[in-house]
């Protein structure tokens, strides 16, 4: 496993001799667990969720050896002909139908002010950093690591949130483990839940949260400059993911489905 700390010596004098240094070992350091920290405003644990989303990491290797990753069986990709936010604004009542955003947007539609709980499971030996745009979430549960590899000599037990759970906008998910995140859908818009490691995000580890598009259409309006910016680049600025009306997604490339 990779160490949690990296130390090195920087020498600015040209030709300076190499100095032997004794560096700290991870095993000798005392680590704080932010799961146990209490936010200063002491926001209580949100009530039982109105909407649950279960996400599990999946992967796919092409015949050329190119890996794809993803969640919920879909590898996220920006293959839409219309940006997702533009679709949310321009499709009227259909904006609450997740299928109009195309399969590779991995879209999940949330109702306004619902309490949302997302469970993220990663049954592999890689740690992941997950970030949700537009929200800070409560970490309500963190699962145990499974002792199925020599790298984990001592499994870490499951932890459940206290009275005032820790809030973050990013969370590290341990290998062979899961977390449960909870937030209130009080910020209408189009938000990504994505991997913080750029290479994993680029290969598809993300979903789109379409939050209260009906409320979004009433409260806000896309600046005309944004629409003109798309049109000048040959990007369509209205309609569903394929730039069509209704549920017709003709013209989109086939999605990459994953093995979970």
Automatic annotation (TrEMBL):
Any single Pfam family the record assigns to this protein: Cu-oxidase_2
Domain (Plastocyanin-like): give its ranges.
79-213
Single GO BP term: cellular response to iron ion starvation
- GO CC aspect terms: high-affinity iron permease complex
Q: Which organism is it from?
A: Coemansia brasiliensis
Cite the InterPro entries for this sequence. Answer: Cu-oxidase_C, Cu-oxidase_fam, Cupredoxin
Q: Name one GO molecular function term.
A: ferroxidase activity
* Annotated family: Belongs to the multicopper oxidase family.
What's the protein name?
Ferroxidase fet3
Question: What's the gene?
Answer: FET3_16
Tell me the Gene3D superfamilies matching this sequence.
Cupredoxins - blue copper proteins
| Domain of life (superkingdom) | Eukaryota
